[in-house]
Amino acid sequence: MAGAALFIGWGQVVRGREQQSLQVFNEAIQYYTRLKEQGEIESFEPVALEPHGGDLAGFLLVKGERAKLERLRFSPEVLRLNVRAGQVVDKFGVVSAFVGEELDSQFAMFQQAAGELGGK
């Protein structure tokens, strides 16, 4: 089970770049599908959000082993996709995320720190 993830989020499509945004999105889906088939990632899930007045329009959650994801994150292919995405959507970003066992560890550290620091 994956303990690590990459959260790849984006905002609204840049006006006038709707077709290009679909092209880049499809390139990304094909790329991550290939990585999953090759065993480089465990899974990925694209998510589109309904309009809600916020900055986040959608995201891709890529799950896998931390070391593989860190290598992947700075690979030429991913950097190229990220640059292309930044040209067609606003507020594009990539953030390391914790899932599964890594999430459990994060909450355990939080609980320990909260206990050490006192409070209610």
Name its key features.
single chain, Alpha-Beta Plaits, 4 helices, 49% helix
CATH class: Alpha Beta
Shape: globular
Mean pLDDT: 94
Proportion of residues in β-strands: 15-25%
Give the total of domains. 1
- Order of neighbouring strands in the sheet with most strands: 2-3-1-4
* Helix/strand order: EHEEHHEH
Q: What is the correct CATH architecture?
A: 2-Layer Sandwich
How many helices?
4
CATH topology: Alpha-Beta Plaits
Q: Count of DSSP E strands?
A: 4
Distance between the termini: 34 Å
Q: What structural class results from the helix and strand content?
A: alpha+beta
Main beta-sheet strand count, sense and barrel state:
4 strands, antiparallel
Portion of residues in helices? 40-55%
Overall radius of gyration: 17 Å
Pick out the low-confidence regions: none
Which SSEs are present, and which pair or pack?
Elements: E1 4-10, H1 18-37, E2 43-48, E3 58-64, H2 66-73, H3 76-88, E4 93-98, H4 100-117
Antiparallel strand pairs: 1-3, 1-4, 2-3
